[in-house]
Amino acid sequence: MKYKCLILDHDDTAVKSTPDIHYPSFVEALKSLRPEKDISLADFVTYCFNPGFSKLCKDIMKFSEAEQEYQYKIWKAYTNENSPDFYPGFPELIKEYKKSGGIICVVSHSESEQIIRDYTLNCGLRPDMVFGWELDEHQRKPNPYPIIEIIKRFNLDNTEVLVLDDSKPGLDMARSCNVEFAAAGWSHVIPEIENYMRSNSDYYFSTVNEFKEFVFYGTERMGTA
């Protein structure tokens, strides 16, 4: 295998969750918090890409602490009640990679509880480490903390790690630690986001199968621009 450790995003990289869970829960919260605001799915995805969900809440929607807590409770109810589907082929990739001795870590803006649930249900295993939204803000991506801890825990070199993510926070996290970054392009529907990720990632993959071929067989830059 090309890498000893995969550091994987969850939402819109491993699982199809934004259109069915995260966006509807945010719209539900807005009905009470900002009824005058109308945010489309495309706008929501764009804001989450840059500047990120945290700043969408604090800087764009200007939620107070109490409002952020209210939005969180609605989101938590949605995530507790709904388990998203993995992208076709992703569970098989995870299982094969683990059987081959690879390390699977997840760094996500979902919570660890839901991530572990999703992996257990769909892959029959738990990731080796999970860094979720429940952590303090300075420990979440795009901060380097998760990668630093993973490298330390498994005694890895930077060259033995690959980050896979569909968004800019994951890319920024990888760059801060000088590890290679692969863009999960199979969820991209907004041309500006796709173009940015193609231009700034080490690798860009349009399908899960392309990514799998790269991880196991080292096919260089498959699916890149």
Overview of this protein structure:
The protein is α/β, with parallel strands linked by helices and 225 residues long. Helices cover 49% and strands 13% of the residues. The protein has a 6-stranded parallel beta sheet with strand order 5-4-1-6-7-8, sandwiched between helices. A two-stranded antiparallel ribbon has the order 2-3. α6 (112-123) links the parallel β4 (103-107) and β5. The longest helix has 17 residues, at 65-81. The model is unreliable at 221-225 (pLDDT under 50).
Helical stretch count?
Answer: 10
Which overall shape is indicated by the principal axes computed on the Cα atoms? Answer: globular
Strand order of the largest sheet: 5-4-1-6-7-8
**Percent strand:** 5-15%
Q: Mean pLDDT across all residues, rounded? A: 94
Tally of strands:
8
Detail the poorly predicted runs: 221-225
* Assembly state of the chains shown: single chain
Largest sheet: 6 strands, parallel
Question: Helical amount among residues, as a percent range?
Answer: 40-55%
What is the N-to-C succession of helices and strands? EEHHHHEHEHEHEHEHEH
Q: Which structural class is indicated by helix and strand composition?
A: alpha/beta
Radius of gyration: 17 Å
- Ends: how far apart? 23 Å
